[in-house]
């Protein structure tokens, strides 16, 4: 929706008198908060060069990923200056609102949080990060973002109507209100519709093909594959609303994306320590671990892994399969014809999980890929068929 039309609708519902006082004394209207978040999500004026917004790297037309080539085949995102390159792939914002807050569970495992290393505990924290990241929207500080909000034609009126006339008196409060609005929009059904073929199958509204049926059996099996150890949070019988992630952290031996490292200036010798980069984590045993991503819309979220090193979903399955298969074929990356490459961090490999499945033949690999295609939201199905 055009932002101008959006705000016209937003403002049409406002009271004509005592706007600020009414907002302070009443519960915030959730629908209008979500509408404000929508406008903020698509606005590019809050970046340093007024060239980048949330939707730039999380495009709703492409399952909320950054689909731009950026000279690195979509592996990482380019900053608002059209030259800076990050080092990690932008995760899809699809179903991100269902990620639990960063915590340690009863078994002592790190779980949840936002970004690949959980460095922001929740969705509000994540929403504020890109504005201040020097490789993304590149604003120097929160005060500069709040100044931009106040310079906007419509945001000042919207903020004051929702949060009170004094919302801009303190920078931290205004910035937090902005992230709350974006997070409210990201919690809407627009991001998490649960209407894929798999969801319709659970509701008796879709009949899987034979290959899809095999993929379902393999994925949820505790005998043939190890997929569900990391990508299942509910039992199969309760799998409505399944996000296909345990949100735990694992080192699966992902190799370095040398193409990205050459171009972003970090160099091929740089090491991304994953979870250990989180300021709240200082345990060396967490080095090289990254959060398990959702498989929702995974057919559309290439390239894969935290660094975008693999470009085909089948390659990802083959990479996992190499831990249970021996021989030249298993040791070769089908995308390059070369060996897979050494793990970026050789310690702390999740070998117990990685080596617990059976070796998969071509038919079963294809069936798993076909099953994952079933996890595509209805509005994107035409993109994978």
Describe this structure in words.
There is one protein chain. The chain has 15 helices and 6 strands. The chain is globular, with a radius of gyration of 22 Å. It has 2 domains: 3-94 and 123-186, Orthogonal Bundle (Cytochrome Bc1 Complex, Chain D, domain 2); 197-383, Orthogonal Bundle (Cytochrome Bc1 Complex, Chain D, domain 2). The chain is mainly alpha-helical. Helix 3 (30-42) crosses helix 8, helix 5 (123-132) crosses helix 8 (171-186) and helix 10 (210-220) packs across helix 15 (362-373). Strands 1-2 form a two-stranded antiparallel ribbon. The protein is 34% helix and 3% strand. Residues 1-6 and 11-26 have low confidence and may be disordered.
